[in-house]
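Margin note from the TA: students keep mixing up input and output lines. Inputs are the sequences; the output is the structure of the whole complex. Example:
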Amino acid sequence: MNLPVLHLGGRHAAFVWAAYGVTAPVLAGLVIESLLQAGYWRRKAEGRSIQAEPDLTQP
Amino acid sequence: MFGFLANPARFMAVSRWLTPILGALAALLLTIGLVLSFSAPDDYQQFATVRIMFIHVPAAFMASLVYVCVAGASLIGLVFRHSLADAAAKAAAPLGAAFTALALATGSLWGKPTWGTWWQWDARMTSVLVLFLLYLGYMALHAAIDDEQKAARAAAILALVGVINLPIVKFSVDWWNTLHQGESLFRKGGPAMPPVYLWPLGVMSFAYLFLFGALWLVRIRTEVWKRRANTAALKAAYR
């Protein structure tokens, strides 16, 4: 498969790489931060060993 | 659907198997989308920068869509006083802020070589900046109030007021003469784009959509665990 941008040294290549270079860490950061937070609070909730479900349907 | 998932236990059961499916779909589509993006030929006007469109347009699309989710969940939380809806709104806001920031950053990186400027105070760009500020305001307001219910209510009102900005974002290119180009996808006569660019754009759009779906569920689950942990801590303190 032809991947022209990988071989591109033109004047616009820097803008393309910068855009993808900004996007990748932001999306990866969202995934990592979400999973770390989920793991932390799950362990904390389970550590406090709640027996009954809290009623989240009530204000 | 909402009634079915309104039960936290049922939501946790459904989201437990739905989250990895959405995550896997997002990863698969992101991989395919990247290959399609990098194998697409240069555009005759935009040259290589046409590839920025494949990540800019989905980010901009998600910026507005996520706000609809925040506002919808806020409305449900406000009307029905349902804390799972509040959790859903709170969980979506940082994701929306990130997508909006990406739309602004990648748009700027596309604008410099194409328009000759990083930024222009035109209606589309300014309204997207306002959208970003609304997300930041929503999160700041939520974080500033200790009482979870009061915080959710105040932030929900802000989110609902901010809905006025969504049609401005969408129709700004029609209502005003902007530097930002007009509608090129969902318009009469079909998209103003050949299939070689439509495919990577479509695949990346669905990848972003599934990624948001997976992350939103993870973050709502986190909110539920957080509340369970806090409830347990309160029970332990009163023993």
